[in-house]
Specification:
alpha+beta, GTP Cyclohydrolase I, domain 2, 30% helix, 40% strand, GTP-CH-I_C/QueF, folate biosynthesis, Dihydroneopterin_aldolase, FolB_dom, EC 4.1.2.25
């Protein structure tokens, strides 16, 4: 069996941060829900069971938490782009996609979300 690519999915990471440009958004933290999909070549990790070949999703998640909670953002685009950059940091990551949702941002909608993706240039 040949294993080529793995996908890690960090699902529904619920955090609070300052996001938005209205006065109330600047003064009060809001909920955000983050989903990230991280693709990488898994053949070495799968064949050897060696953690050195795997993408450490715990580290990525901790970085996402710290970054999101310790900063302020005017736009979903900025927060999403910065989180995507964190996901792409490790050289073995080939592609990644991050979605950030703001629950209750619109009166009659569950949430508003923005999704960005990136591919590593080789």
């Amino acid at each position: 069996m040949i294993i080529s690519e793995a996908q890690i999915h960090i699902k529904n990471l619920r955090l609070r941060t300052y996001i938005g440009f209205n006065e109330s958004e600047k003064k009060n933290k809001q909920d955000v829900v983050i989903n990230a999909w991280i693709n990488y070549s898994a053949s070495s990790a799968s064949n050897t069971d060696d953690v050195e070949y795997a993408v450490n999703y715990r580290t990525i998640c901790k970085e996402m938490i710290t970054f999101t909670e310790d900063n302020r953002f005017l736009l979903l685009e900025k927060l999403t782009a910065d989180l995507l950059e964190l996901c792409m940091k490790q050289e073995t990551v080939t592609t990644a996609k991050v979605e950030v949702a703001k629950p209750h941002a619109l009166r009659f909608a569950d949430s508003v979300s923005l999704t960005l993706s990136a591919t590593r240039d080789h």
